[in-house]
Specification:
The protein is mainly beta. It contains no helices and four strands. The chain starts with 22 loop residues before the first strand and ends with a strand.
Amino acid sequence: MTSTTGAAACPHCGWPDGAEPFQVVSRHATAAGRTLWTRCACGSLQVRMVDGCGTRVVSRSSPA
């Protein structure tokens, strides 16, 4: 789903991917940067990559 501002957003509830995650479940260092496992406001589990290119959601589940 794309929000009205053109930014990527959760397809289940519309929470913007660029916003702070609702809940950080865990953080892990990787060779390329960091991986954040987060939970969206709707309960969807997300994997966010944080590296030199910024932060992006690379995978997400259906709401819990």
